[in-house]
Amino acid sequence: MSVTVRFAPSPTGRIHIGNVRPALFNYLFAQKQGGNYVLRFDDTDKARSTKEFADSIEQDLAWLGIKPNRIERQSERFALYDAAADKLKAEGLLYACYETADELERRRNRARALGKPPVYDRAGLKYTEEQIAKFKEEGRTAHWRFKLPNHPEGDPFTFQRTEVHWDDVIRGKQTVDLASMSDPVLIRGDGSYLYTLPSIVDDADMGITHVIRGEDHVANTGVQIAIFEALGSKVPEFGHHNLLTTIDGEGLSKRSGALSIASLREAGYEPMAVNSLAVLTGTSHAVEPAKDMQALAEMLDFGGISKSAAKFDPAEVGQLTAKIVHGLSFEEAKERADALGLPIEPLLWAAVQENCNTLADIAVWEQVVRGNVTPLVGEDDKEFIETAKGLLPAAPFDETSWGTWTKAVKEATGRKGKGLFMPLRKAVTGLDHGPDLKKLLPLIGHQNTLDRLS
Ligand code: GLU
Predict the structure, then answer these.
(1) 82-185 CATH
(2) In angstroms, what is the span from residue 265 Cα to ligand 1's centroid?
(3) Which protein residue's CA is at the shortest distance from atom 5 of ligand 1?
(4) Closest ligand 1 atom to the C-alpha of 203?
(5) Cβ(77) to ligand 1 under 6 A?
(6) Cβ neighbours, 10 Å, residue 76
(7) Ligand 1 pocket, residue 213 CB under 6 Å
(8) pLDDT tens for residues 337-369?
(9) Which of the four CATH numbers 3.20.20.370, 3.40.50.620, 3.20.10.10, 3.30.420.10 does domain 1-70+195-327 have?
(10) Could you give phi then psi for residue 4, rounded to 5 degrees?
């Protein structure tokens, strides 16, 4: 059986690092199995879904290196959902209800007060024609519930223990009892679909073999399996992973912005740093930067995903990015720098690589080499710099120039260590930190150095 998975975001905001987790668990799993990956926009909520968000999600995924084999939009597939709803209605499995939210709340409270589970009592199955006419007169429209198979045949008003089992590919054997659940609403009073039915219809229609998603969906799975079965569809495998949270255990909201893929990209972070963090946090594998998707796929092991939350510190994206940048060969760095319009050449890269926290830092160091630098010379160092200027080796500079120069300055002034090097660095680069001057000086050049010392 060939594997087909899907990532099903609702395009109601930009995706963030927490959404990358299911996006990648599915993608890497498909890669490993030689399977297919469907990007499905769950955009049935017309008020909140936008094309702009859908486009931005596609772009963000492309930047991360996730290439779907197929893209689908639920907003173009309503005919399928209507057909499924009609089939369930015809079989008496989807029934009209007219209670208001307030009425339902009161009933739940009453049930709780009597020590009973607050489960919907299927009053919708008992309405008389007069009652229905009255509801309609009051301007009420029906919402539709799926009748869970948790009752003896022919007696929907007696709830009986009905276990649904699935072998979760991440969490192992799971059991839920449908008797403790209310019949789920599949269609709202305004005729719009909740996520449940379209998702099931699509999973079946698209031949999804594995539904890998966050553990916030575990509670939905028993009901969904019952609906797959009612529709006569093959039930896929399920896997529910722990969710990424901040160190304080706070969830990442789609609208929080800070950890959106767009903002991480703009900050110059590496896609594989984001991917590695999103996948490896909260697993038995150490969080380290994977070289590419294939390497990350090798590190992914569903059995090694922890049962507790996957806590991470946003600063780790920066640390992983720096590790990746420090390990890039010139050729790799050049390919990327060219695409980003960053200046790069072998000597510049060799000089500044270790000092680049992101690839974009090349441009910062290039400015230190070639741009207008304001030399930093303290009052106490003016004379020292004047002496040093007179001892500057002849052009052209090479990797021995810095050593020759500092040796001569040391002999002439008696300064050594930091007292010798720091004023020279500050005068030549305008900074108190930076790449090895032995490598930087030939790039800055004789004339430029002389000018900065004047
Ligand atoms: N659109 C749903 C969500 O974002 C998909 C859930 C699922 O994977 O089934 O939560």
Answers:
(1) 3.90.800.10
(2) 24
(3) 8
(4) 9
(5) no
(6) 10
(7) yes
(8) 999 899 999 999 999 999 999 999 999 999 999
(9) 3.40.50.620
(10) -130, 125
Q: What is the pLDDT of residue 170?
A: 96
Q: Which atom of ligand 1 is nearest to the CA of 19?
A: 4
Domain coordinates in residue numbering, the chain: 1-70+195-327, 82-185, 379-453
The residues, any chain, with a CB within 8 Å of residue 352's CB and separated by 6 or more, are 361, 362, 365, 366, 435, 440
- Closest-CA residue, ligand 1 atom 8, reads 213
Atom of ligand 1 nearest to the CA of 42: 1
Does the model's pTM come out above 0.70? yes
Q: What local confidence, expressed as pLDDT, does residue 61 receive?
A: 98
Longest dimension (CA), the chain: 108
What are the tens digits of pLDDT across the range 31-73? Answer: 999 999 999 999 998 889 999 999 999 999 999 999 999 999 9
CATH class of 379-453: mainly alpha
> 431: CA distance to ligand 1 center in Å?
50
DSSP SS3 for 138: coil
**Which pLDDT does position 251 carry in this prediction?**
80
pLDDT confidence of 257, banded at 50, 70, 90? low
Q: What is the predicted pLDDT for the residue at 37?
A: 98
The alpha helices in 77-195, defined as continuous H runs, are 78-90, 101-113, 129-137
What pLDDT sits at residue 379?
A: 94
Note the pLDDT of residue 411. 97
* Mean pLDDT computed over 76-95: 98
- Residue tagged 């028993």 (tokens): 222
The tokens 């087909």 sit on which residue? 4
Query: If you take atom 6 of ligand 1, which residue's CA is the nearest one?
Result: 8
For all residues of the chain together, what is the average pLDDT? Answer: 95
